[in-house]
Structure of Signal peptide peptidase SppA, 36K type:
Amino acid sequence: MRYMAVFMILVSLLATGCASGVKLFGGPEALKEYQLQGSGDAKIVVLPVAGVIDNKPERGIFADKPGLVQSVVARLRMAEMDPAVRAVILTVDSPGGSVTSSDVLYNEIMRFKQRTGTRVVALQMDMATSGGYYVSIAADRIIAHPSTITGSIGTIFMRPNVTGLMEKIGVQAVTTKSGAHKDIGSPFRENTPEEQAILQNMVTTLNSRFIKLVSERRELQGRESSYSDARIMTAQEALELGLVDSIGYFDNAVAAAHELAGLDEASVVVYRREPFPNDTPYNTITAQAGSAPLVEMPLARPLNVPSTGFYYLWAPEYAR
């Protein structure tokens, strides 16, 4: 009955939408700059890094949303085109994501800094773990909220395993392969000890890059053992280990941006697709309902289960 009611509402809106001016199927809108606070010609851009770090679009019935990598890089490009932008505040609220997407974002931020000389502050929100921390270390200064959970500096290989289910329902997967390890990581069988060793070696190799970057960016050479066990930690623990520079709030991040960029005054701005009344830096939505799809039902990842692959991700719900 609920789906029938939704269907009838859609039919009614389709019939009347054009006449009433309701935008049913929002198309892509260009990013625009909106001022949040402050004054002056110089600008500090607030750039959210929120959600799982990947570049997979979130698919709906009528429209798709770009992945996080595309969303962040588009804003970096916009900031790069504006010589008045002197600093960027990354508000990081992410458990991490895929190895490559996390590394791409880190690299894009580093190259943005090199090309423009713009200073970057990372303000960690609820969670900045694993890939979220990986992105944070591209900043010139990292500030964590008092209640931030961060750390989880490590790498994980995840894959679904449906062997038990297949045994219950009497189904087998028959594979013809060109080499002994062609189907390594298959969800339809257990790994052999040799395959497990191969995957472990790959995880170790990918993780060594993560550890090395943290050591270099945070100047923690010789102290890798203090964080390389991949545990999560509080903001205070991260501060004591040297993984963040200070504990504070948004105002502290703005003050740090002023200091790093040598600014006496600046306008704090954000890039959105629509204006919001009474807007604040804590708003991570880029467009209001009127320009977004009227009905949006994500189809690609209804259970939010990650696909097989290597991740810089804190995801305890998938551990066993």
The longest strand covers residues 119-129. DSSP finds eight helices and 14 strands in the chain. Helices lie at 2-20, 68-80, 99-116, 131-136, 163-169, 193-217, 235-241, 250-261. The chain has a mean pLDDT of 84.
